[in-house]
Specification:
By secondary structure, the protein is α+β, with helices and mostly antiparallel strands. The chain has a six-stranded antiparallel sheet. The longest helix is centred in the C-terminal third of the chain and has 13 residues.
Length: about 180
């Protein structure tokens, strides 16, 4: 589910937009994210994920905005910069799957979407590039391991320690996930 989908679901459930919640929270003097979160859960019976999405928007309304490109660049800062070229080459090949491929950076990883549906994630570290892939029904292998507790948004995980490991097998797995999305 995309961030916007969470907000849309909240509006469908409550009939209120984020701006409506902003006015209501302001009238109650709520400015801290934890207070807004508790209020949304208690007063509007929102689940944790939906309340968190609204609370995040309200608590960060005055924060400076960054572009997706800036957020992606932040993932490759410092010791993780060595993975930027490999990432760019990988994304260029993934974009060839179809015009509906988009990148959606979060604070911890970069989601790869097809028509708004996540089919993979990429998370650089200083030591490796972790690639998470949604491949339901595929038995894990030594290389394509089960995602386990690493990230529950995907089913499998690849630990890339050298850019040459981003080979045709990796692209095949990503393309299968793209087709299933």
């Amino acid at each position: 589910m995309t961030f916007q989908a969470y907000l849309d679901a909240v509006q469908a459930k409550t009939g209120k937009t984020v701006d409506d919640f902003r006015l209501l929270a302001s009238a109650k003097g709520l400015t801290e994210k934890r207070d807004i979160l508790a209020w949304l859960k208690a007063e509007f019976a929102l689940g944790h994920g939906h309340a968190t999405a609204v609370a995040h928007v309200l608590a960060n309304a005055d924060a400076p905005t960054t572009t997706p490109s800036e957020r992606i660049a932040a993932h490759f800062s410092g010791g993780k910069a060595r993975w930027r070229d490999a990432y760019d080459a990988l994304i260029a090949r993934v974009n060839a799957f179809g015009a509906d491929v988009t990148e959606a950076p979060t604070q911890t990883y970069i989601s790869i979407l097809r028509q708004g549906k996540k089919f993979a994630i990429i998370q650089p570290t200083t030591e490796r590039l972790d690639i998470g892939i949604k491949l339901k029904g595929i038995t894990p292998t030594e290389r394509l391991t089960a995602a386990g507790t690493w990230n529950n948004m995907v089913t499998h995980r690849l630990r890339i320690s050298d850019p040459v490991e981003i080979d045709d097998a990796v692209l095949n797995w990503l393309e299968r996930a793209y087709a299933a999305a």
